[in-house]
C-alpha cells in the first residue's frame, strides 16, 4: 500500500469550515407567531457541538448576496442541521426564512462555527442557561446534548419571552427532564394567575431562580444584545466570576 | 445592523482565512492591557467589514475590511494574539 503524499493528505481532508455547503430544506415547523424552526440536509456538514452557529448565505436572482448567522438547535455528527429563526418585521433575511422558505429550497451554509460559546458533556459542573427570545436556540442544543449523552450535570434554564405563545420549543421544554429546571419569564403577557407581573429580567429574577455564584456554575447567556448585557451585568453584581459567564449577542437594541 | 454583536460572529468571516477558530484565541488590548478571548470583544458590523473593539476600554482591537479581491485585517489595537493548540 502506498502512503499518501502530503499534498494528497491535505486534499483528502478538506477544512470543514471556511467553505460554503449547499443545504436543502427538509422540513419547517411553526414555533411561535413570529418564528419557526427549519431542518436542513447539508451534505458534507459533518456534525456540530452544542452552542455553535452557521453562517447562511442567500443569493437573489440578480446575484445580490446576504449573509446572516444562525445558531444551531440540533447536535449531531451527521449532515442534519436544525435552525430556529425569529422574524424581525423590518429585516432583510429573517422574514424570508420564516414566511417563504419551503421544503426543497436550497441555501448555502458555512460552519459549524465558533468554539467558545459551546458546551460538551465532558465539561464538569452545574450549568446555568439564560436566554431571551431566539437566544434559546444554542441553549436548546446544550439541553439536547446533555440529554443525548446521558450527562447528569445539573442544568437550569431561565427563558424570557414576550408571551406564552412566543416560546420556541415549548413542548420539549415542558417535558419534565431530571436534572433540568426551567423558569419562564414573561415580558409583556403572562399566563393567567401567574405570580410574577410581566417585565424584563431583573437581578431579583436571577437571585431567585438561577444557580448562586457560590456554586460557580458555567453560565451561558444568549439573546438580543440589550438582554445579554443587562443579564451579564446583573450576574457580576450577584458575585458570578466574569470568566465563568459566556455571552452571545444576536444584535438589535 | 446598527447595534453591535460580539466576537462569536467573527468565526465565519475569519474561517475564510484561518484554519483554526480564532474566536477562542486571547488578545491583549494595546490600550488597556486587558486579555480576553476574541469571542468576548464587541463587533460592529458594517457593509465594508467588521470593527472589533475591546470589551473593557472600547478601543479598536482589529478591523476586518472586505475588499473585492482580498480581505484586509488591520491589527492595530492588540499587542498579541494567543491561539490555543
Ligand atoms: C452568532 C449569532 C447567532 C444568531 N443566531 C440566531 C438564531 O438562532 N435565530 C435568530 O432568529 N437570529 C439569530 N441571530 C440574528 C440573525 O443573525 C439576524 O441578525 C436576524 O435574523 C436579523 O436579520 P435580518 O436580515 O432579518 O434583519 P436586518 O435587515 O439585518 O436588520 C433589521 C433591523 O433589526 C435590528 N435587529 C437585528 N437583530 C436584531 C435582534 N436580534 N433583535 C431585535 N432587533 C434586531 C437591526 O438593528 C435592524 O434595525 C444570530 C446572530 C448572531 C451574531
Ligand atoms: Zn482595552
Description:
The complex is a heterodimer of chains A (253) and B (85). Chain A has 253 residues and is α/β, with parallel strands linked by helices. Chain A folds into two domains: 21-113, Translation factors (Elongation Factor Tu (Ef-tu), domain 3), CATH 2.40.30; 127-250, 3-Layer(aba) Sandwich (Rossmann fold). In chain A, 21% of the residues lie in helices and 31% in strands. Chain A has helices spanning 6-12, 94-99, 136-149, 170-174, 203-209, 225-237; strands spanning 20-30, 35-41, 53-59, 65-71, 80-86, 106-113, 127-132, 155-161, 180-186, 218-223, 245-249. A six-stranded antiparallel beta sheet of chain A has the order 4-3-6-1-2-5. Chain A has a five-stranded parallel beta sheet with strand order 9-8-7-10-11, with helices on both faces. In chain A, strand 7, helix 3 (136-149) and strand 8 (155-161) form a beta-alpha-beta unit. The radius of gyration of chain A is 19 Å and the shape is globular. The relative contact order of chain A is 0.15. Residues 1-15 of chain A have low confidence and may be disordered. Chain B is mainly beta and 85 residues long. In chain B, the strands form two sheets. A five-stranded antiparallel beta sheet of chain B has the order 1-4-5-6-7, with no helix packed on it. Chain B starts with a strand and ends with a strand. The A-B interface holds A 15, 17-18, 53, 55, 67, 69, 110-111, 113-117, 225-226, 246-253 and B 1, 3-9, 11-12, 15-17, 19, 21, 23-24, 37, 39-40, 45. Bound molecules: flavin-adenine dinucleotide (FAD) and zinc ion. Residues 29, 31-32, 34, 54, 56-57, 59 of chain B line the site of zinc ion. Flavin-adenine dinucleotide sits between chains A (53, 68-71, 84-86, 88, 90-94, 134, 137, 224, 248, 250-252) and B (1-3, 5, 8-9).
Amino acid at each position: 500500500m502506498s502512503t499518501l503524499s502530503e499534498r494528497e493528505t491535505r486534499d483528502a481532508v478538506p477544512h470543514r469550515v471556511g467553505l460554503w455547503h449547499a443545504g436543502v430544506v427538509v422540513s419547517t415547523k411553526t414555533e411561535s407567531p413570529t418564528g419557526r424552526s427549519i431542518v436542513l440536509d447539508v451534505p458534507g456538514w459533518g456534525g456540530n457541538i452544542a452552542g455553535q452557529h452557521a453562517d447562511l448565505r442567500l443569493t437573489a436572482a440578480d446575484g445580490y448576496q446576504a449573509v446572516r448567522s444562525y445558531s444551531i438547535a440540533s447536535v449531531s455528527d451527521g449532515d442534519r442541521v436544525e435552525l430556529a429563526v425569529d422574524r424581525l418585521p423590518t429585516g432583510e433575511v429573517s422574514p424570508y426564512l420564516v414566511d417563504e422558505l419551503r421544503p426543497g429550497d436550497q441555501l448555502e451554509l458555512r460552519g459549524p462555527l465558533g468554539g467558545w460559546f459551546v458546551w460538551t458533556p465532558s465539561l464538569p459542573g452545574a450549568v446555568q442557561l439564560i436566554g431571551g427570545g431566539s437566544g434559546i436556540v444554542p441553549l436548546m442544543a446544550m439541553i439536547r446534548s446533555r440529554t443525548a449523552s446521558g450527562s447528569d450535570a445539573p442544568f437550569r434554564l431561565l427563558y424570557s419571552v414576550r408571551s406564552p405563545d412566543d416560546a420556541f420549543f415549548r413542548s420539549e421544554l415542558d417535558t419534565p427532564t431530571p436534572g433540568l429546571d426551567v423558569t419562564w419569564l414573561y415580558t409583556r403577557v403572562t399566563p393567567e394567575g401567574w405570580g410574577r407581573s410581566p417585565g424584563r429580567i431583573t437581578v431579583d429574577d436571577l437571585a431567585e431562580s438561577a444557580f448562586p455564584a457560590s456554586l460557580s456554575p458555567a453560565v451561558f447567556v444568549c439573546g438580543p444584545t440589550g438582554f445579554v448585557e443587562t443579564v451579564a451585568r446583573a450576574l457580576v453584581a450577584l458575585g458570578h466570576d466574569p470568566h465563568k459567564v459566556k455571552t452571545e449577542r444576536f444584535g438589535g437594541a | 445592523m446598527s447595534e453591535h454583536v460580539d466576537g462569536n460572529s467573527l468565526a465565519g468571516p475569519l474561517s475564510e482565512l484561518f484554519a483554526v477558530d480564532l474566536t477562542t484565541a486571547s488578545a491583549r488590548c494595546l490600550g488597556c492591557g486587558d486579555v480576553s478571548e476574541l469571542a468576548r470583544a464587541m463587533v460592529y458590523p458594517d457593509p465594508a467589514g467588521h470593527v472589533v473593539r475591546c470589551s473593557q476600554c472600547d478601543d479598536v482591537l482589529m478591523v476586518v475590511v472586505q475588499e473585492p479581491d482580498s480581505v484586509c485585517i488591520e491589527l492595530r489595537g492588540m499587542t498579541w494574539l494567543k491561539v490555543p493548540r
